[in-house]
């Protein structure tokens, strides 16, 4: 095939410290590519470097040992001793390399299955390599195909759809109750770390208003300033519950801040309009019994974990589908790559044989003197037919090789046989 | 069976399959195709009803097959209008089976044109029956919205994040659909009773005769009056509203089925 080679490490094979040493940031990447392309046998190359993986993808000369070149390159640029580095690297060739690239692009190899960033990162590494002209037809066609599949996986499976962080799961849950966030107001009680992530997610949804309250007014004001919200006094908690649609508690308090009677009163005041409570404090700040009140929805951290788990399960199902799509595409890509190599070689074979026959024909005609045009034509037709008959079985054999290894060997052999016939008379 | 109706059934059925597939697999493209097919099916359905009216020289509600066919058309119309506003995958999966079944069933029991009394051929009749069927269709969709709401609310309250949780629309959307269908249904039902009374006066000489269908429709109207009051004036929401709509729909079915007394021509 194209003689593709991929060598690299990711979050599964190497810990963060090694990944950090091996990685190339935006400034280092061009220099790395330049140094890489100097190594013998590397015809095309590309470096993929993100916080979770560093990989070198190359199209190589079949005769050279490109894998060791790449390993030396990585050892040199990371400063990690070669033997130590080698235990962390994975090496793929040809079809396996294609599969790996496709899986990475479709976020199947990511730390968080289905995450959307990897495609952008891959594209940016690719465009750097394009700018430096280290990619050629092989890597171009591979990467373009990979980007297409990533899109296909995203649209045909729901791999990216299920939020798997606790705060985005909370947002999704609330969305299932309230639909869109435009008319929603939110009250955040406390300011624990978890609360901050949740607030950020909610602030991004475009809610109508965010109110913040805390036992310490300064903390409330500080948070309010950061998230464009309004600080309200802690003492008015029960009043504020009836005014908002979502209440999030994330305090260090050990007693119940919101109990059943408070909520019942609030529901009466808000005429039974639905309300959601999300309690991410440990220990709980909200009496879980309020869940039995009509139109009250109450979720604690275990429930959010259950949502995340259910979402992970859905992602895994989507991933199974995505793997099938990747399989299909790998077959399609390899078949195409195979056939496109074979075409020109077939042409070469037939052309070369015809050329040989023509040389002999000319010599024959020179020997026996000029002939009638009709005779010459007959002879030329015969020549074509001979060339065809010799080439035909070769072509059939070439095209019917089941795997790329045999096929390359065949093509190699044929090309070498034909070249030796080129020796001058 | 006319070719138009054949195409209609084909389009509805294929649209139904796409809708269910899109619902289960969560693929928007199938739901959109489904909507397109149903819309085309609806166009052919309209055409077939028009042709039927022209051929038989009367509004197509004189016997059971015709009424079922027309009823399916009403549901189809209400469904398409709802989808323009709320692209809900779930609605199609729940509603389209009935549309297809009704249309197919109406063809299965298709009967020849029947003679009917001259007094039936009046504008009031056409209006009365049309809004009646529209009301039934809207109440059916109210019922479906209520059911979807109940299922989704159950998933959320019981914290069951399973198959349906992922596919059903938000409670807010369920509630909005519920509200709108309820309103359309109630207004239509009111118009039905009023137009019925006016026509009765015109055709038979008295506004109200307490015949079974009239009584049943009044009961249905009463139930929905309670529901409208509960939902809009008292701002009651959630489960109770859905439960009342189930009772209301049961009553609607009875009203539709009751066909003796003055309404016995069906």
Brief overview:
With 425 residues, chain A is an alpha/beta fold. Chain A has helices at 16-22, 28-38, 66-78, 82-86, 94-105, 117-131, 137-156, 166-178, 193-203, 217-227, 237-241, 260-269, 301-368, 373-399, 404-420; strands spanning 4-10, 42-50, 53-60, 90-93, 185-190, 209-213, 230-231, 246-250, 275-279, 296-300.
Overview of the structural elements:
The complex is a heterodimer of chains A (425) and B (266). Chain A is 58% helix and 13% strand. Chain A is of the alpha/beta class and 425 residues long. Chain A folds into 3 domains: 4-156, Glutamyl-tRNA reductase, N-terminal domain (Beta Polymerase, domain 2, 2-Layer Sandwich); 166-302, 3-Layer(aba) Sandwich (Rossmann fold); 340-420, no CATH class. A 6-stranded parallel β-sheet of chain A has the order 7-6-5-8-9-10. A 4-stranded antiparallel β-sheet of chain A has the order 2-3-1-4, sandwiched between helices. In chain A, helix 12 (260-269) links the parallel strand 8 and strand 9. Chain A is elongated and about 115 Å long. Chain B is built from 9 helices and no strands. Chain B has helices spanning 3-25, 28-56, 64-85, 89-108, 123-157, 163-167, 171-203, 212-233, 239-257. Chain B is flat. Chain A binds chain B through residues 156, 158, 161-162, 173, 175-180, 271-274, 291, 294-295, 297, 299, 303, 306-307, 310-311, 314, and chain B through 26-27, 152, 156-157, 159, 161-162, 165-166, 169-173, 176, 235-240.
């Amino acid at each position: 095939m194209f003689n593709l080679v991929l060598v690299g490490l990711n979050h599964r094979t190497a810990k963060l410290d090694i990944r950090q040493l091996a990685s190339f940031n935006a400034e280092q990447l061009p220099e790395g590519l330049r140094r890489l392309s100097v190594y013998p046998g590397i015809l095309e190359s590309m470096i993929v470097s993100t916080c979770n993986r560093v990989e070198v993808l190359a199209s190589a000369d079949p005769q050279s040992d490109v894998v060791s070149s790449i390993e030396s390159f990585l050892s040199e640029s990371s400063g990690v001793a070669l033997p130590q580095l080698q235990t962390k690297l994975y090496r793929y060739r040809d079809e396996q390399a294609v599969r790996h690239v496709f899986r990475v692009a479709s976020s199947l190899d990511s730390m968080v299955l289905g995450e959307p960033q990897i495609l952008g990162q891959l594209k940016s590494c690719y465009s750097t390599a394009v700018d430096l002209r280290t990619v050629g037809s092989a890597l171009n066609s591979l990467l373009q195909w990979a980007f297409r599949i990533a899109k296909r996986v995203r649209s045909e499976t729901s791999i990216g759809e299920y939020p798997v962080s606790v705060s985005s799961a909370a947002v999704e849950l609330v969305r299932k109750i309230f639909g869109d966030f435009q008319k929603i107001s939110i009250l955040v009680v406390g300011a624990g770390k978890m609360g901050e992530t949740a607030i950020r997610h909610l602030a991004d949804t475009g809610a109508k208003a965010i109110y913040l309250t805390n036992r310490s007014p300064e903390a409330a004001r500080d948070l309010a300033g950061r998230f464009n919200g309004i600080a309200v006094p802690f003492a008015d908690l029960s009043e504020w519950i009836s005014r908002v649609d979502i209440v999030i508690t994330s305090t260090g308090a050990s007693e119940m801040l919101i109990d059943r009677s408070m909520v019942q009163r609030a529901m009466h005041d808000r005429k039974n309009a639905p309300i959601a409570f999300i309690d991410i404090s440990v220990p709980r700040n909200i009496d879980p019994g309020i869940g039995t009140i009509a139109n009250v929805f109450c979720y604690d951290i275990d429930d959010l974990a259950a949502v995340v788990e259910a979402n992970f399960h859905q992602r895994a199902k989507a991933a199974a589908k995505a793997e099938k799509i990747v399989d299909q595409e790998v077959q399609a890509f390899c078949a195409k790559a195979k056939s496109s190599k074979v075409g020109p070689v077939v042409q070469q074979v037939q052309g070369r044989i015809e050329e040989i026959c023509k040389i002999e024909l000319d010599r024959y005609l020179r020997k026996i003197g000029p002939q009638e045009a009709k005779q010459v034509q007959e002879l030329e037709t015969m020549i074509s037919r001979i060339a065809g008959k010799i080439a035909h079985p070769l072509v059939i054999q070439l095209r019917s090789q089941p795997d790329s290894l045999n096929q390359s060997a065949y093509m190699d052999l044929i090309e070498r046989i034909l070249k030796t016939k080129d020796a001058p008379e | 069976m006319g070719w138009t109706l054949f195409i209609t059934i084909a389009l509805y059925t294929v649209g139904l399959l796409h809708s269910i597939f899109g619902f289960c697999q969560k693929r928007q493209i199938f739901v959109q195709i489904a909507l397109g097919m149903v819309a085309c099916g609806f166009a052919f359905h309209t055409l077939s009803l028009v042709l039927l009216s022209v051929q038989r020289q009367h509004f197509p509600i004189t016997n059971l097959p015709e009424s079922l066919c027309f009823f399916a058309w009403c549901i189809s119309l209400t469904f398409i209008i709802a989808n323009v506003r709320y692209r809900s995958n779930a609605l199609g999966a729940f509603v389209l089976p009935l549309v297809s079944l009704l249309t197919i069933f109406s063809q299965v029991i298709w009967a020849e044109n029947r003679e009917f009394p001259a007094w039936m051929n009046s504008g009031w009749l056409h209006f009365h029956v049309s809004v009646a069927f529209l009301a039934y269709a809207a109440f059916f969709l109210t019922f479906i919205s209520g059911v979807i709401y109940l299922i989704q609310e159950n998933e959320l309250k019981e914290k069951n994040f399973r198959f349906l949780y992922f596919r059903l629309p938000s409670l807010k959307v369920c509630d909005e659909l519920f509200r709108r269908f309820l309103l359309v249904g109630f207004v239509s039902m009111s118009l039905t009773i009023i137009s019925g009374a006016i026509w009765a006066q015109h055709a038979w000489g008295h506004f109200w005769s307490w015949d079974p269908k009239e009584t049943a429709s009044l009961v249905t109207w009463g139930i929905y009056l309670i529901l409208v009051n509960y939902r809009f004036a008292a701002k009651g929401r959630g489960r109770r509203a859905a439960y009342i709509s189930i009772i209301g729909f049961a009553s609607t079915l009875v009203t539709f089925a009751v066909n003796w007394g003055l309404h016995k021509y069906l």
